[in-house]
Give the backbone structure.
Amino acid sequence: MKYYIIAGEASGDLHGSKLIEALKEKDDKAQIRFWGGDLMQEAGGVLVKHYQMLAFMGFWEVITHLGTILKNIKFCKKDIIRFQPDVIIYIDYPGFNLRIAKWAKQQGFKNHFYISPQVWAWKENRVHQMKKDLDALYVILPFEKDFFENKHQFNVQFVGHPLLDTLTQRKKSAALINKHGLSKEKKLITLLPGSRKQEIKKMLPVFLKILPLFPQYEFVLAGAPGINPQWYQKFLEGSNLKVIQNKTHDLLLHAEAALVSSGTATLETGILNVPQVVCYRSSFLSYQIAKLLVKLKYISLINLILDREVVKELIQRDFNVKKLAQQLEFILSDSGQKKLKNDYKELRTVLGTGGASKKTAQLIIDALQ
């Protein structure tokens, strides 16, 4: 069968790669064409556009790039018509994907959505259109099934979180320390300032001011996939901070703690059992609009899933050197480490038993057959 997959971010590239592997395992005649990244390309198939050309963050940033976004939508529609897939699989990235799904439904294509848009956070009115346009929706967070089925009478499949498969099998390797010349005496703190340039520009300068306050630790910046390591250097003048590219999970396995920009990385850090502080800062205009539209108690997935403040969130003005240093000191303490790691045990239990990619691939194939 012919599969057309659309992922627009680094996390979608990761989950898309595992889904491609599962589809090819279950369908040896699978023809796959996709929007995604390097990981999906390694898994197999034909890359149409890289997510680096698609990832615009925040309300204001989207408005200023609207022309590019509209051109991409037009190109995507033409490409789908040329390919004539048996199914289109959308991975998160709702602003783009739901537009394509509405059009594709009108053209008679099958629409399957893997990793639901976060309509429980904002734009809940999208659910009505999703029910019309989607043939299947596969959700990865436990509270999503209740939200869709009980609140909106929309039958969905809970497949568990795909990060469980990706991360629980990883092992700590001494080769990382040796290869990159990291200290064997100092404990490691990993910095994750985000995957997009817009957010890194907001986060990294504050992170850097923390380094002199904790000289007994070694800090390492986990370079985001698709961003040239040299791009970071303009922020690092006068600093000996190392940037290690495409080794985020390996760095977290060695880390005593992490400072993490909100997003999927917070969940990855929790699954890998690393105490963290969650940080977020956007442009003033984007944040003010978000406050009006987003109806959530928390910004981190860990806190949302467990419905309480497990990890500390420092947002906008609260994301400053003083508060960040205080929270980092706490999570490095014995009591801080113990508290967070106990909470992380509960998190992993709630997320499911694993196998999300294989379950989803089988459900898609069964539906088409």
